[in-house]
Amino acid sequence: MEAILKSTTRTLGGVALLLAALALCVVPGCKGRQGGEDVLARVNGRKITRTDVDKYYRSQIESANQQPSEEQALSLKLSILRELIDNEIMMQRAEKLGLLATDEEVDAKLNEFKAQYTKEEFERLLAERKLTVDDLKREFRRTVTTDKLINKEISSKINISDKDIADYYNAHKAEFNLIEPQYRLAQVVVTVGPAAQGQNVANKAQSEPEARKKIQQLYNRLESGEDFATVAMKYSEQPDAQSTGGDIGMVPESALQRDKLTFEAISRLKPGQYTQPLPATDPQSRQSFGYRIIKLISKEPAGQRELNDPRVQQFVRDQLRTSREQLIKSAYYESLHNNASIENYLADQILKSQGSK
């Protein structure tokens, strides 16, 4: 059942290279090729400045127990710059299609977010994250715009027919006979240590405190309204997260019960909700390897499920839609990136410094 229902940086080597790159582009005074400001990249002519990158960089290292090494700092800034480039590509595409979020949509999103907190809690949250209301509005404008773009360009064009559902069900009918309750879950995972093959490597945590800080940052993104699957695709270190959006399929209740803390947290969730950051533990060795945030997508009781069961139809429809959407999203992101004119001056300077060694 689990198999069928599953929907599912690098650190730059060389201190000499790093120091040369820092001298070229990370310290004040670094100039982009085309202007007098500290321009670190251009996307179709629009600039991304060192100030843009440093703002997110400071936010990410603010609560770190120790300052990153020079190599780690540059690696993180490269990762942040790449994300800002990707965001700019999406915003420019949305602008071209007339899909930029309106002020009314942004205000509605902000008010929805603020409603979760008292005034004092909201102000404390901003202070802890070193954010202003304008920062939040800017981020909500981006997420609302991106959602509108994805809906128009991808989600609205996906059609799952009754035949698609019947074909899937008939091919796997026996596997819809559940001998115990099953939980369909998704997760965002952060691990400690070197990246394994297939893992996202942006801002890779090298210690337990770094992993704890990174998972909290991702939790904050979710709390700010970012889509769970998108966060998993971009940042989760589960090897196949980029293609599945973190979806790990159906998990038997007995398997979840092996980890009491995790099972208790999931048991309190309603479909669509997610846990706070939890320790990630290997079920065999009981060794902790990082942290994770788990989302409950759905829960299925034990027993045979027939095709005429609305739950079966909806589950298969969602399964097929999610699978197709994730595939098309990945191709869509790559296509936009390939068709954009991108100049990454920071990356260029690092490569030049390597060649000058």
Record keyword descriptors for this entry.
globular, single chain, Triger factor/SurA peptide-binding fold, 4-stranded antiparallel β-sheet, 2 domains, alpha+beta, Chitinase A, domain 3, 3-stranded antiparallel β-sheet, 357 residues, 15 helices
Task: Describe the protein in words.
The chain is globular and about 65 Å long. It starts with a helix and ends with a helix. Helix content is 53%, strand content 14%. The chain is α+β, with helices and mostly antiparallel strands. It has two domains: 15-155 and 341-355, Porin chaperone SurA, peptide-binding domain (Triger factor/SurA peptide-binding fold, Orthogonal Bundle), CATH 1.10.4030.10; 159-335, Chitinase A, domain 3 (Roll). The strands form three sheets. The chain has a four-stranded antiparallel β-sheet with strand order 5-4-7-6, sandwiched between helices. A three-stranded antiparallel β-sheet has the order 2-1-9. It has a two-stranded antiparallel sheet with strand order 3-8. The protein has 15 helices and nine strands. Helix 2 packs across helix 15. Residues 1-30 and 32-36 have low confidence and may be disordered.
